[in-house]
């Protein structure tokens, strides 16, 4: 039986030949299937490829739904299978035991249809700003704990020659706008009470991208960018280019979202890469707002979906796919897709997993770093499965960083997943929103017209309808708690 899946993966990763891919071999042998795996970096090209397959009536059996509407349009187009009989505590015991509960799954439904299920997600927050501590020490400054101290550091990093090369070629902060949007990494959002990505307060949803508070936020961003304190090319930076610039010593503050963003144990971290160029580089996490939260509690992100074609023509394919996904959600699949082969890439004693970094580097990282594709179904949170991972590369410094970022408070979560109203195009509203935010930054060079622009979003692009629907969903979820 051939099964096809379309999943996401980093652009730098690739799957090896079948005879070298121990994950593929394990799945195909264990479940008696032949796999056709397509993987692409998330983004417009990914969405276009999926759309093309659907238009050609040749969809994969399973795919990750990464579009901003979470699959709402595909649900309306009737290309998604009803998952009621496939995704249950009986058919996916690992998924429900370790990662998901039935209430959360119910809140994730689209228009009262069970056509998508959330990928297991990390319930901890790692969102934090990072700063070059060695630059601070050179300039005699402390890690900033307030927004004003942050601004003072931006000035020092831009004007004070923190790297000592005498060239005046450094900036305080950098980010990627991808040539199309105002990144949500800017601290000015939090300064003005806009937490990532949204929160509920006084019976109202505060959406960080469209709230009235965006007006002062844009004013503040214009002030720091106009003052020459940030990377002048931030808007044109794409993907991780801003991180590359930070690694190269062009900027001293960036935002990180992952646990291993600056760990010594991560060979691809900003810390490891920076030290390859400058052994003195020292990135440390900080919160420019003291003990205040900078985001809300994480919620389920993107879903996996099944093809309605497969459900109609051969349900056995989807049953087998469900078995595979549940295996990935269990201990055996988790260990294989995150760390490799037992007694080769790690050893196990009870629930203690000791990694062999040299073998991982030789067999996995240098072979396309292919586990970064196969680990698509679960976050790297072994503690959820009762496992303790021992990485010989992890330093005392790493533990301090982990303790610091997990201690940053988070605001109460929404309690539900925000799904759009039936037949309303949220993507169109967000696209217009981004267009207007960029217009204020580069054409208007002022936020004065934000009330007018916001009215356009609310009245002409269904913003009022969308956010009213979201608020009703949040209230209903909280009543049911």
Automatic annotation (TrEMBL):
Q: Does the keyword Nucleotide-binding apply?
A: no
KW Cell membrane (keyword) present? yes
* Keyword terms of this UniProt record: Cell membrane, Lipoprotein, Membrane, Palmitate, Signal
InterPro entries per record: Bact_solute-bd_prot1, SBP
According to the lineage, what is the superkingdom? Bacteria
Mark the transmembrane ranges: none
Q: Which Pfam families match?
A: SBP_bac_8
PANTHER family in the record: ARABINOSE-BINDING PROTEIN-RELATED (PTHR43649), POLYGALACTURONAN_RHAMNOGALACTURONAN-BINDING PROTEIN YTCQ (PTHR43649:SF33)
Protein name in UniProt: Extracellular solute-binding protein
This protein's species is Paenibacillus hemerocallicola
Upper lineage ranks? Bacteria, Bacillati, Bacillota, Bacilli, Bacillales
């Amino acid at each position: 039986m051939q099964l096809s899946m379309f999943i996401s993966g980093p652009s730098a990763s690739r799957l090896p030949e079948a005879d070298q891919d121990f994950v593929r071999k394990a799945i195909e042998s264990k479940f008696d299937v032949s796999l056709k795996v397509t993987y692409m970096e998330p983004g417009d090209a990914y969405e276009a490829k999926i759309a093309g397959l659907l238009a050609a009536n040749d969809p994969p059996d399973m795919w990750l739904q990464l579009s901003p509407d979470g699959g709402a349009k595909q649900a309306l187009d009737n290309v998604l299978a009803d998952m009621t009989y496939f995704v249950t505590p009986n058919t996916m015991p690992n998924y429900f035991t370790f990662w998901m509960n039935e209430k959360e799954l119910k809140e994730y439904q689209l228009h009262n249809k069970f056509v998508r299920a959330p990928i297991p997600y990390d319930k901890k927050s790692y969102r934090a700003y990072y700063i070059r501590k060695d630059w601070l020490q050179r300039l005699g400054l402390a890690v900033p704990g307030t927004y004003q101290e942050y601004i003072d550091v931006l000035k020092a990093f831009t004007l004070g020659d923190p790297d000592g090369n005498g060239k005046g070629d450094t900036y305080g902060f950098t980010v990627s706008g991808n040539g199309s949007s105002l990144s949500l990494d800017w601290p000015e959002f939090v300064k003005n009470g806009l937490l990532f990505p949204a929160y509920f307060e006084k019976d109202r949803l505060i959406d960080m991208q469209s709230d009235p508070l965006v007006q002062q936020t844009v004013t503040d961003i214009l002030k720091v960018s106009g003052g020459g304190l940030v990377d002048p090319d931030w808007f044109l930076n794409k993907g991780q280019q801003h991180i590359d610039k930070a690694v190269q010593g062009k900027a001293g503050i960036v935002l990180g979202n992952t646990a291993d963003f600056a760990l010594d144990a991560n060979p691809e971290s900003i810390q490891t890469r920076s030290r390859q160029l400058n052994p003195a580089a020292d990135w440390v996490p900080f919160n420019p707002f003291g003990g205040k939260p900078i985001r809300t509690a994480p919620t389920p992100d993107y879903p996996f979906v099944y093809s309605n074609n497969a459900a109609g023509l051969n349900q056995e394919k989807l049953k087998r796919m469900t078995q595979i996904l549940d295996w990935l959600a269990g201990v055996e699949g988790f260990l294989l897709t995150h760390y490799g082969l037992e007694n080769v890439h790690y050893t196990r004693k009870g629930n203690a997993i000791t990694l062999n970094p040299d073998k991982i580097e030789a067999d996995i990282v240098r072979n396309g770093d292919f586990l970064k594709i196969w680990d698509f179904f679960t976050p790297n949170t072994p503690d959820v499965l009762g496992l303790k991972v021992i990485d010989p590369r992890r330093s005392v410094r790493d533990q301090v960083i982990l303790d610091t970022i997990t201690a940053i408070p988070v605001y109460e979560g929404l309690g539900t997943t925000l799904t759009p109203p039936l037949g309303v195009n949220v993507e169109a509203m967000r696209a217009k929103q981004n267009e207007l935010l960029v217009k204020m930054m580069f054409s208007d060079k002022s936020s004065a017209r934000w009330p007018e622009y916001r009215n356009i979003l609310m009245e002409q692009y269904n913003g009022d309808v969308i956010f009213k629907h979201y608020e009703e969903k949040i209230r209903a979820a909280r009543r049911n708690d």
